[in-house]
Amino acid sequence: MIYAKGLPWAPERIILKSPSAGAPRQNWKRNMAGTKEFHQETGSDGGLAFYFCGWQKCTPGHTFGPAVRPHYLFHFALSGRGFYERAGKRQEIGPGQGFLILPGELTYYGADPADPWEYCWIGFGGTQAGAILRECGLGEENVIYEDRSGGLLGREMMGLVDSFAHMDVNGYMLLGRLYLCLSHMVLKQPSKGAAAQEYVGRAMDFIRNNFSYDIGVAEVARTVGIDRTYLYRIFRERLGQSPKEYLTCFRLEKAVEMLRGTGLSITEIAMSCGFREASLFDRHFRCRYGCSPMKYRRRLH
């Protein structure tokens, strides 16, 4: 392990190699007063790979980084406090919270001077690691974890560290314990009704943000991650209209706003609202409002 103390964003970077970049495959460990770290790469050919784990009772003000790593690294605070800094933003971390370091990202973190943290960590990777972390609510948009396991995560992570101390390790056990740790982090599945409402909300958000483009129901369903038949059903149940009807109505409402508030031509408004042909826009508008877009505009004046 490499330690760097000083200003949070010193000019130099520490780049840590993953075990697959040259470290031996057999066990090796660092076990000092207040620090334990054990390395053994396993599962590197599969969807999830374990690289190393560790524990540390930090001294006041102890810092690590700035550093860049080629793998995922998750820290979990058992006690005490500290901070985690990425992309120039600093967040305070306390007991029962964790933070994720993403591959290739420059990060810096340190212990509180008055109440230094005790934490444990796991380094891992694999082709499925990112997808599993997303199920835990972690990724590019969110790297801070709030414990929902009732203490099970901390005990499981420390059990992983302690298994090395007793030399009770093999590849299957390491991957099994890694999966157990991640299982304690996975977000609880919402109820069927809540899940349906979530899908509808995500579909509506996608339509609102992309109505001006040439999108259809198939693309909406694909973006949300569900079958278009199921999307149709939950839209009818929740909104009383199909996804296609919602998309068309939303586009027409935006068109009305443009007719009222802009000097754009009818063709320009049609294209801006996702209608690729002015004639199609005119037909839908007449069906909804009983007149052509041009006549509607004239009535406003």
What does this structure look like?
- The chain is 40% helix and 23% strand.
- The protein is of the alpha+beta class and 301 residues long.
- It folds into 2 domains: 14-185, Jelly Rolls, CATH 2.60.120; 192-300, Arc Repressor Mutant, subunit A, CATH 1.10.10.60.
- It has a 7-stranded antiparallel sheet, with helices on one face. The protein has a 5-stranded mixed sheet with strand order 1-5-10-7-8, with no helix packed on it.
- Strand 7 and strand 8 (89-93) form a beta hairpin.
- The longest helix has 19 residues, at 192-210.
- The radius of gyration is 27 Å and the shape is elongated.
- The N and C termini lie far apart (73 Å).
Keywords:
301 residues, 2 domains, alpha+beta, disordered N terminus, Arc Repressor Mutant, subunit A, Jelly Rolls, seven-stranded antiparallel beta sheet
| Coarse shape | elongated
State the distance separating the first and last CA atoms: 73 Å
The low-confidence parts are: 1-33
Order of helices and strands: EEEEEEEEEEEHEHHHHHHHHH
CATH C-level label of the largest domain? Mainly Beta
Mean pLDDT metric: 85
In CATH terms, what is the architecture of the largest domain?
Sandwich
Strand order of the largest sheet: 2-3-4-11-6-9-12
Using only C-alpha atoms, the radius of gyration works out to: 27 Å
Strand content: 15-25%
| Domain module tally | 2
Major sheet description: 7 strands, antiparallel
* Helix run count: 10
Q: Going by CATH, what is the homologous superfamily of the largest domain?
A: Jelly Rolls
Assign the structural class, choosing from mainly alpha, mainly beta, alpha/beta, alpha+beta, or little secondary structure.
alpha+beta
